[in-house]
Fold this protein.
Amino acid sequence: MAVAPTITIHVPGPLRAYCAGATELSISAHTVRAALEHLERSQSALYRNVCDETGTVRRHLNVFVNSNNVRDLDGVDTILTPGDVVTILPAVSGG
Amino acid sequence: MADRVILTIGTKKGVFVADAAKPRRTFALRGPFGPGVPVYSTLIDTRGTPRLYASSCNPFFGMKVLRSTNMGKSFTETKSAPAFPKEDGRALVNIWSLEAGGGKKELWCGVEPASLFRSHDGGDSWEMVPGISNHEHARKWQPGNGGLCMHTIIRDGNRMHLGISTGGHYLSEDSGETFRASNQGVGAGFAPDPYPEFGQCVHKIARHDDAPGRLYMQNHGGWADWTGPGGPRPDIGVLRSDDSGRSWRSIAKGLPSDFGFPIVVHPHDADTVYVMPLEPQTRTCPGGAPAVWRSENGGDSWSRLARGLPKKQSYFTIQRDAMDIDRLKTPALYFGTTTGQLWIGREGGEQWDCLFDSLPPIHNVKVAVV
């Protein structure tokens, strides 16, 4: 398999406490799923905020690759390319 | 020497803490703590240096457990919250109960979907309790309106009583290793069989140390007019057991409604029990006039306690964990409403005053003297 592309994960403010204050994380992953699995291994506290016990991205979070919601792409199977920015954002909801 | 009365108030927008000197004339309020998300369970752990715990149901980032070691001046997250094993297939939705265990730092936690967790280190790590979480009935329980929640954990020596909505009452007699459904006499109004083995919508269970074997239950009542299969089911909403939960009988006669959520026992008199009857359809105060009802004879008769409470136009709900009673010589009751009012019932509920009238909707109220 080809070398996984290096991408950037942008960490939202409320989650930075779970990764030593980092605003961005640079990792190598072929897909969003692989990026999340990388987080599970390397940033387990951060990962638990993003995915539930079954590995599913939490319902009220959105994951973007660059400016596209992965929901409109191939979900967590969306392919990543070098330089992509993966952004995790809380959905607009509440009351 | 214990000299402060402390309240934890779990709301839709975080946890508040209020405290007062023993006369309880005025309470100072602190908070909200947490990220502004619902808090359905709190615990005032008075073993050793008091610790306060609160669940924090974050819809974005999942469940957390908050802990305060400074009497509620600040809260921090514990190192982890309960979580199902990855291979289990279930995901935690909410935390509905936090209770102190037998060991110095032991905690028990009831969650949604209905399962039980245990911590040996004050909430920093948790393990699922398989005897109930993987019970053969567990995948057959159905969620009630509030979700499939394990809301009551009562320890009594080697016995443990669990209340599950909708699952019913489960009893362990080996310190939580194994459990069995124990619902003889506990009715269900929403199933053709009025007395199923399990699946009842138990709302809350309470006990008293001085009355071994006795339990009180607020069950899902409001089925007196049911005309479907099995016929009417009056008075199934408020129950009592005298054999450690093996069988139950109605004590609802005399109440304006057998529907309600909380049930609380007087700290110094096991025969004195309190409920808050609600209209079963709207789940609000009957006639818009809230009242706590008290029995002083173990449920044989009931009297209305409403002095100081609104006489009309009050249609709030009191949720299952939103009423408690302190342990002072002449105890006071406390209840929180879905409209954000916190009431104190002085002299055992004889005189009611509103302590705070504009909090967020209240899910949980606990009190301790520390």
About this structure: The mean pLDDT of chain A is 94.
